[in-house]
């Protein structure tokens, strides 16, 4: 891994380039699919991703592949220079930095790493047994065990690499005695200790009620629980907070930097340094040291997420949010999204929304909001206040505009929850609910 | 490297197979501020093994004899170990072991220089910007993948298949008087750059900008039930998402497909005939699927009656049938799943002009900007790019943001006319986190009492 990177950069340096970079990710992934209590299939994937970029005469080029043989270095450099020559000259050439850390850095619990097939399946057995002890089965669920090593090296000097291991469990958990009692689960683990007790955590999430009542409809107060709120942020806001969207005129808030565009209760931070965070890492996939980036501060838009290229185009510094996904050039992606808690207790939030709903989860009708921020989604699991208490209500549809929703917030909960790569409290706001 | 020899090193397995994939992809992505040429070369191998009753699967991105031996061993161990954790039996139908070598588009391999492709795409972007000052951002993505698959199994199959798939996606953002909208257009198929080089750029730019400019002038449609004429792109995606997935053998086997017990029954209007065909030119084309089975045209719905499901080897064996050649994997890392290839609603007899003239009061909806379908319930919500009201058989004021919603049965039994045209769209379809290209072909159709929001 290191020798091929050295050779690649040596060959690039001989070709009078202005900047050269190589990125290598070696990953072993074990994916287990559980259809109904039992393993439907399990597979191990030994993956290698190599990508490189060069800048020459103000143009940038990108090639990628899955080969590290010495004999592919020269042809790869030739191809890289060919695609570099073909690109438009950049208006502003990105200012890359030497990669962020100069030593091996294991940032996760080594007990989670994927080693042998028996180990992979043994861990699944622990999970399934742990769930069974808590009267829970998994259905249509995927458990991904992943360990990887990331290396970034460029012509500015040092190299950086780190390794990590993590496990995700996503799907549906069902009460063993009553299949109508079920819940969507989304857990990300970076500690072996968490894995050993996950059954209890999942069991607690399974609802006790199954009979649903018809609730009200119209413009109503809605309490978005952290999972539902995280989906709203992920699908309907996060794209608008990317500098690329702003540059491409696709973000309606592109000209509102410094304005009070959101409710003063909203503070949103992208935090790649969060201890134990699902996307925490010492550097991004461009080698830039990761950071905390305040995007919205007390309702005021403060920044957009950037990678090196978008940042250069806009004349600002990268926020180290360049991520490479499956052999593609680095795109802008959030790390861990943190929304600051408010002051309202759960009871206070419920009291505010008594004429409306508690929305536990949403299913987006599309993967992004309309260009102006409006969205429409299904809320399959909701509660409405009925006969003096909150009860399971029939699914509803919700129509809103993400900017209106976050501009007129009724209250924000005092307690954050972790949902995948987001850390956020419940939020009470007004939305149009269609029964 | 002799794959048969590597495969023979696995002792004690009931069945074993290795798939090798080599894909070379060149692509361009640009808009007015930024351009990106990318080049990718991905290789790798996937192995599946049944020792006794369970599948064991492993893949590697390193293609050499040692790495293949490692994944075969991993797959073997997983198959053995899974015996303790699963009741699901691995099954295989009686599909024959085939031996063949096929190049589906040899002419596409004549190398068009990257510079020539880029010049054509740059001209296209300029032509789109020239249409109107309200065109604010044009994004063009071009991808050409040269794919070679080799499939070998322990029953004696040895297949080598080469193909080239090209896809062009254009997206235009328009802004006028504070209103904004996006128009997208995708073309592609089996073949190389020659597929695009023959397309007139002015027609492409018109197809993108005219609906967008009309939509910027448009009004939201009145909610309620309407007679709706749907264009091929909207119909194609609607049929794929809300009906095509129901016909996949794994959904049928799991009991989640609402048509699981309706074989031979009328499930749509009697003019409705739906086929899946990987042998025609589309982005979902292939000669052999990723289980070594021959791809063929399957009539799924014949004149409204459910005629066949899409099957891979496992689901075919469960039903006592033969695979329809629809076991597809995104790449060597993934396992084959039951997937559509190029799915087409066959045309009827109505010319578009007749179809509109025959509609006294309704809407004509074009394109699809977003949507969502629940493939276990059949409900859907799709937002059209644009469209028009139809008044007394003529197109009236343009529409913006028309959203249709309902249940697929509302569409299938309320079709009142099927056009005589046919347009094949290039789409990507995600199932179990696997993304494969699929063709969605359809004529215009007219649906009565379609719910709009």
N→C terminal distance of chain B: 60 Å
Structural class of chain B: alpha+beta
Radius of gyration of chain B: 24 Å
Count of alpha/pi helices of chain B? 10
- State which percent range the strand residues of chain A make up: 35-45%
Extract low-pLDDT stretches of chain B: none
Largest sheet of chain B: 9 strands, mixed
Based on DSSP secondary structure assignment, what is the total number of beta strands of chain A?
Answer: 22
Based on secondary structure, the structural category of chain A is alpha+beta
Please give the count of helices of chain A.
Answer: 10
Distance between the termini of chain A: 56 Å
Largest interface: pair, residues per side: A-B, 62 and 63 residues
Q: Work out the strand percent of chain B.
A: 35-45%
Question: Could you walk me through the main structural features you see in this protein, from its secondary elements to its overall organization?
Answer:
The complex is a heterodimer of chains A (435) and B (453). With 435 residues, chain A is of the alpha+beta class. Helix content of chain A is 21%, strand content 38%. In chain A, a hairpin with a 2-residue loop joins β2 (38-56) and β3. In chain A, α3 packs across α5. In chain B, 22% of the residues lie in helices and 40% in strands. Chain B has ten helices and 24 strands. Chain B starts with a helix and ends with a strand. Chains A and B meet through β2, β3, α2 and α3 of A and β2, β3, α2, α3 and β5 of B. β3 (59-65) of chain A pairs parallel with β2 (34-50) of chain B.
